[in-house]
Amino acid sequence: MTTANIITLSRIAMIPCFVLAAAYYVDGFKMGVAEDWQYLLTVALFTLTAVADGVDGYVARRFNQKTRLGSILDPIADKALLITALLFLSWNHGDAFNQLPLWFPILVLSRDIIVVLGVAIVFMMGRGFDIQPHWTGKFATVLQMITIGLVLLKVPVPSWQVPLWLAGFFTLISGIIYVVQGVRKLGA
């Protein structure tokens, strides 16, 4: 097991901890007994997990630790964190956290489901499909994480609207690019 894979597995393990900390904070907030440490832990776990995404990629490239397992686990860790945070922040938690608009998690989930189904279809048709992430997809992921981070930090609403809309735009564009790549692969 490489260091990069251990970091990726640690990211996956931190996701339920993030959700628990956030849920306890919201519950306490609603009852008027919110604990600052729960809020700080929520923000720290999300931030640490998001930053570790870049760290495991750097370690894998820098120390030649790219593995098949890592290429499977890394996007799973990314998507698990993002989808979990998006769904959590799309519920109304009162004043504990701002609520993300419902279109945002629907767009992100729809794109990811379409991409996964497309990869499965291409693979089942025997075309083999080596997924090469497009820069628009990577940029969309960064913007999604920034948006979630700003919401978790309780930055006032107008301030996180620009990264939200940019994340939505690049999520949509990257989805279209991945679909076009899949269609081309089927036609090859």
Task: Provide a descriptive summary of the structure in words.
The protein folds into 2 domains: 1-70; 98-188, no CATH class. The protein has 6 helices and no strands. It has helices at residues 3-30, 36-62, 68-89, 103-124, 135-152, 157-187.
Notable characteristics:
188 residues, mainly alpha, 0% strand, globular
Short structural summary:
This protein is mostly helical and 188 residues long. It has helices at residues 3-30, 36-62, 68-89, 103-124, 135-152, 157-187.
**Secondary structural class:** mainly alpha
- Whole-Å distance between the termini? 36 Å
> Quick one: overall form?
globular
What's the β-strand tally? 0
Percent range for β-strand residues: under 5%
N-to-C SSE string, H for helix and E for strand = HHHHHH
Helix content: over 70%
How is the main sheet built? none
Total domains: 2
